[in-house]
Amino acid sequence: MAIPLRYSVRNLRTRKVTTLLTAAGMALVVFVFAAVLMLDAGLRAALVATGQYDNIIVTRRAAGTEIQSIVDREQAAIVGSQPEIAMTGGARLVSREVVVLIALPKRGTGVPTNVGIRGVEPAGIALRPQVRVTAGRMFKPGAAEVMVGKSIAERFDDARIGATLRFGGRSWVVVGTYDAGGSGFDSEIWADSDQLMQSFRRQAFSSVVARLADPGSYEALKAGLEGDPRLTLDVKREKEFYEEQSRTLSNFIRYLGVTLSVIFSIGAMVGAMITMYTSVANRTGEIGTLRALGFGRRSILAAFLFEAVLLALIGCAAGLALASVMQLVQVSTLNWDSFSEISFRFTMTPNIVAQAVLFALAMGVVGGLLPALRAARLKIVDALRSA
Amino acid sequence: MYWLKLAFRNALRHRLRTALTVLGLVVAILSFGLLQTIVDAWYAGANNASPNRLVTRNAVSLTFPMPLAYREKIRAVPGVRAVGAANWFGGIYVDKKNFFPQFAVDAPAYFPMYREYVIDDEEWRAFMRDRKGAVVGRKLAQTYGFRVGDTVPLQGTIFPGVWQFNVRAIYDGAQPGTDTSQFFFHWDYLNETVNKRFRHRANQVGVFVVEIDNPDRAAEVSGAIDATFRNSLAETLTETERSFQIGFVKQTEAIVIAIRVVSFVVIFIILAVMANTMAMTARERIGEYATLKALGFGPGVVAILIFGESLAIAAAGCSIGVALTFPVGDWFAARMGTLFPVFKVSVETVALQVVCALAVGIIAALFPARRATGVRIVDGLRTI
């Protein structure tokens, strides 16, 4: 026969201070655990949203990032004329792009921060449907004009509409702001590809981006281009390319965060154990009475375990509530893979909620098991004698 | 003294509970110490920077080079004692995750500026004789098992191809904080190879390291260097080595702040645990406290008993935690390899650990002590 759940709930209610303190410890652990996963999810969401599945990006072999990559005009022309690439209005959907990094002072702190400037061809806009101009207008091809991503506009004084940025020996007028739907492009400045190349006296592009007419033809195109002896290029799906860009930072955040959560959870579990041991010690008489009434050892074990798990779940709910507030926070940091600034938000996903709940359950079970076993092992006579 | 002894005895009454609380404290103090040390490691490069070294780079950003000809022009600026050129190589050793910094440097000018890199004379001469020679740090050598005479292949990401280097010397740090996880080779070797393969990228330098006569004139000399190249194709930005290093840290500041915040969260977690322990202890002993008061002892004695017990537990947890920080820190540093070139537990960290533990001990005793000292004798005795 099972002890009513109400018994456990009421026990927690009678010792409010102890319950609150123990739950608070667990809430903080769950908060750290969830916040780390949210940070990682935010970073991935930003970089994964950057790439399109049916776009390919071509860079120099083994370059890894666009700023290290060099694709000269001849190679770019070969890539651009492949039959697998989609056509619009008689031209292939290809953008030959230049990416350079400039240092801009951040608003407030004035710290020079690496910002990526991307030179795109007109097709480059069509290739990124997530990019929408929100204020001002697009830069004109052939003019020394730029448009800035949303998070750049928010964080850099020099990047408001009408201001001029000076780099590459020229002044560039900011003519518009665009929203790239929280993707990595939000942390970039876009200009005309040819203008940018001339200003930095470059002979070659950084990358070539193109739309596949049929997403399934990727393997064929990749094999064709990478096997071409005239080219020393890597072909990747744009989506995969940006996923790889998040790898170092994402791994770092995840390893550090999960390690910390596990270590911190030892503290919280110790707290739960202390609470439950005391709870058992104070109720020895009660336990004896329950046993004498006919409740089995298993019922006692279940009741105390349930109490510990309930404690953990209260902590979990509080921790998750606290963590969900973090969604308002925008984080910007240097992405080690691309060497440029990236900004993203803490992002809560159902998956994270599930993981946090499981984590809290595990804490409750581990913290409550030993005290519950002690309660279940008590002999009826001894327990009643101590009452 | 007598009361402290009683407080201490009290702490030992519930052995299991005290042991668990101490365990929690040890974990918290230990992880707090490690996290603070990680933050310190982040700033290590900046802390070891010499005040009389400046770094000149392209004003656009670090990814843009400067012409080699700048070296002589910088040398001619008044106040400059020596100039060395360096290029970030960014090669991959076997796998992408084996990261360590590699620089192509003009060794005869560069190494004399970095007196903290101690190189054996014999090995130095061997390095200077070998065009493809390399100097590696002691820590790097230990991590990957490099020995003098080994050939190290690096897959270039900025400079394509697989490059072979012969380890000719291993340098040690003059101070414990010196970064010995770097890999240096001859700038000339890089430049000659680049010149052969991709002509237009030859004779370009990533950064110039400038040694000046007088550290007090750093701002003036920096200004003079930058003025020399104003309105040229590659304008420069010169700053002290320290602010150059801080610039890197600043860009990843969000992570540093997160680690700092988290390191204090663990203190709050343990505070909750400790406060709970003390609350339970005091609640169980309300009858005893009332008895003491009935015997004529004042509320001060009761407070001493509670604070004494709390502080005794905190002190026990703190000392074990601090003692463990050093071996665990060493183990962690060994596991991380060259990711953290310098990983040392500082005196400030230990001081912070002690302060945090004491604060936890005091705050945890605050509420139980207030309740116990305020309890009326009649109410207290009734609970027996």
Could you name the key traits of this structure?
heterodimer, A: 387 residues, alpha+beta, 2 domains, ten-stranded mixed β-sheet, two-stranded antiparallel sheet, elongated, B: 384 residues, eleven-stranded mixed β-sheet, 14 helices
What can you see in these coordinates?
- The complex is a heterodimer of chains A (387) and B (384).
- In chain A, α2 packs antiparallel against α9 and α9 runs parallel beside α12.
- Chain A folds into two domains: 183 residues, no CATH class; 170 residues, no CATH class.
- In chain A, the strands form four sheets. In chain A, strands 1, 5, 6, 7, 8, 9, 10, 11, 13 and 14 form a ten-stranded mixed β-sheet that branches.
- In chain A, β5 and β6 form a beta hairpin.
- Chain A has 387 residues and is of the alpha+beta class.
- Chain B is α+β, with helices and mostly antiparallel strands.
- In chain B, α2 packs across α12 and α12 packs antiparallel against α13.
- The radius of gyration of chain B is 30 Å and the shape is elongated.
- At the A-B interface, α2, β5, β6, α9 and β15 of A face α2, α9 and α10 of B.
Topology:
The complex is a heterodimer of chains A (387) and B (384).
Chain A: H1 5-14, H2 16-48, E1 55-60, E2 71-72, H3 73-80, E3 87-88, E4 91-92, E5 94-105, E6 112-120, H4 122-127, E7 132-136, E8 145-149, H5 150-155, E9 164-167, E10 170-179, E11 188-192, H6 193-199, E12 204-205, E13 207-211, H7 218-227, E14 233-237, H8 238-245, H9 247-282, H10 284-292, H11 297-325, E15 330-335, E16 340-345, H12 350-377, H13 380-385
Parallel strand pairs in A: 6-11, 8-10
Antiparallel strand pairs in A: 1-13, 1-14, 2-12, 3-4, 5-6, 5-13, 7-10, 8-11, 9-10, 15-16
Helix pairs in contact in A: 1-11, 2-9, 2-11, 2-12, 9-11, 9-12, 11-12
Chain B: H1 2-11, H2 15-47, E1 53-58, E2 66-67, H3 70-75, E3 80-88, E4 91-92, E5 102-105, H4 107-113, E6 117-118, H5 121-129, E7 133-137, H6 138-144, E8 151-156, E9 162-173, E10 183-186, H7 187-197, E11 204-205, E12 207-212, H8 218-228, E13 236-240, H9 241-251, H10 253-284, H11 286-294, H12 299-336, H13 347-374, H14 377-382
Parallel strand pairs in B: 5-10, 7-9
Antiparallel strand pairs in B: 1-12, 1-13, 2-11, 3-5, 3-12, 4-8, 6-9, 7-10, 8-9
Helix pairs in contact in B: 1-12, 2-9, 2-10, 2-12, 2-13, 10-13, 12-13
